[in-house]
Design a protein that fits this description.
By secondary structure, the chain is an alpha+beta fold. It has eight helices and four strands.
Length: 212
Amino acid sequence: MTEHEQRRRRAQLDQRDTDVQEIWGREIASPSGPLPGAVLEVLEHADGWVGHVQLVTGRPASDIDKATAAIEDAFDLLVGSVVVDSGGSGAEIWAYERPSAARHHRRRPMSVRMRGQLDDDGFFDGDRADLEDWAAKYARVWKAMREGGTVDMERFTRRLARLEAGLTDAAHYARHEVLVSIVEKAGLPYESLSEDVASGIGMKPRRPGGQG
């Protein structure tokens, strides 16, 4: 990145900080807002922004959790896109542009860690390998459940959420037919995923009788 590009990027981030702070002060921290007097420090930008919230003395950190819907509304985010990690009088807050990123934020999903160059199928470095790995691991527990075996439900739901978050995020830039191929190659049919995710990447439900 050239010096000019660095300056331009820095200016863009500074403007984003200003915009976030203005909305926060007007909609969230104002006397009529859900967190009056709360101070937001924006720590980094990715697919949205990450910051630290400092509440006024005497207010419990749980108030931030209660304000997530108001924060989503103020910043025009989809429901479920704000995640809070409360602690003491403040908290870390993640405000993502997509709820799939929020539900999986601690593992830094595709939409947060985009890097490198896109390949011919629309994947960033490492995306394809991660999705193949996640699909294979989820397929093992899904098949075990279908066969009546003993399944750790926490592991089942964690692997499903991880795969679906990755698919939903990658669907914004990768070819859908390749995403479908990754899922089906792992032996996962339409009904193994949530209907919105499966249809969102272009999977088709099997016809009666087992024919696709």
